[in-house]
Specification:
CATH architecture of chain B: Orthogonal Bundle
Largest sheet of chain A: 6 strands, mixed
Helix content of chain A: 25-40%
Structural class of chain A: alpha/beta
Largest interface: A-B, 34 and 24 residues
Shape of chain A: globular
Strand order of the largest sheet of chain B: 1-2
Oligomer: heterodimer
Number of helices of chain A: 10
Distance between the termini of chain B: 57 Å
Strand content of chain A: 25-35%
Chain lengths: ~240, ~325
Amino acid sequence: MVDDVFDEVGLKVENLHASYGAVEVLRGLDFEVASKGVSVILGANGAGKTTTLRAICNMCSTSGSVVLGEEDISRAGTADIVRKGVAHVPQGRGTFPELSVLDNLMIGAYTRKDKEVKDDVDRWFEIFPRLSERSDQLAGSLSGGEQQMLAVARALMCRPRLLLLDEPSLGLAPLIIEDLFERFTTLNKETGLTMLVVEQNANLALDMADYGYVIESGEITLHGSADKLKNDPAVQEAYLGA
Amino acid sequence: MNWNFDVLPDFIFNGLSLGAIYGTVALALVLIFKATTLINFATGELAMLGAFLVYVLHMEQGIWLWLSMLLAMLLSAGLGVLIERSLTRPFDPEDHLPVVLITLGLFLIINAVAGDIWNYQVRILSNPFGKFPDWVPSVGGDRFVEVLGSRLKYQSIGIWVTLALALFILGLILNKTKAGLAFRAVSSNVESARLVGVHTGRTLGFGWAIASAFGTLGAVLVAPQLGGVNPNMMATILIYALAGAALGGLDSLGGAVLGGILVGLIQAVLVTWGGVVVFGQLYMSILQLAAAFLIILIVLLFRPAGLFGTRRVERV
């Protein structure tokens, strides 16, 4: 479909600490996302999953190193990290409720200066026809599933090298979740877009991912290939409901 | 009671033109409120400073009035950017108190500095809409046309046309430019705006710039009604503009303009004309100010979001 759109690049995180005020949430994480790969971070509520993604984008106070491809981005500001190719779909979608669907996509391309923005809008409208039908509606009036599609499409409008997804399944009906994850898989397979997903729905996430990390109280306690984690008794008990 | 309907159109025209000015200043308030959810109490004094810039450029330096207005609006916009960058950006945007205190401080400082430079006497500033230009065919007098047996002043028409034009340009900037899209995005969701690569500080500076330019426009338009410019000229106007913004909805640009116009109408028709009907004489300024506070109070009590403001309702 669109092989040349996304540059593949890996992510390497070392000794990542993050805190909100005096509360330290991440206590020295080390992990990697392979170029063109999909990695997933599993963990219970409050383990630090969302904070991990926020720390990568420097949205909280952090220390440690975050290397995108060859470049250390740990000191850059959030807006500049986005300019370097990291797209982040935050928890709760983070769409612009008072802007139309089309404007949400257009602002997604804010960092771009090329002439193909309109083509990309058409592409995502083709992939998500529901959004196309609602092009002029305010994003705040969309259903949860449509908002999640919009959030993803908006993130991809900046032609990222790395896509961060924070609990994309949250609050969505099972059928919609399945459809959404199929789209993520297709996106990764067809474009080689590198992805890091935080997810409570471990089954779905491990099906899509090729590598996984388990995080507990701000530390990584287990990691391995997705297959290995699926068969790990501790993971099965804690996250797969086996 | 003396229902003097003959003069009612006069009061309506007057209310509509004062209201348009309140709407212009209310717009300056709302532009900053939308993006930051804080009230810039220095709006009026910045506008007054802009009017004095016009005074200096036009009355003292002899530059063409309209060019002076344009230059003053640009200079005000630059000052707005400077204030945003140096005085508000260092503070945590989630913490409103320091920035609100800073705008209050700016209010006092600008007023004092202007008073020191120009003292507190009223100085005459040319009226951009004093007389109909020569190319307009004679329509009654050189300052008004007769409508419904009342005098519709050229000044009122000029204010309406200017505001309509300014609103049209603002609409173009906000809806057709990338900077405008970024401004709307920051107003809607600051964190997500950062996540699409918008530098939110610069975008807020852009908002301050437009707001300051609009404030200056409002001050220049209101000056002839006050007899000229003086450092205290905007104090009550700011309160009427606040009432208008609260009435229309602090986060609605269109609401701000309509709210300002409504406040002008309420003042002129209900308070002034009604005052004459009930009491048989004018109780202008005191009642008008009281009415503005009453409007703010009633709106906050019964409809905190204002007539056109949004209570954030979203589907999840």
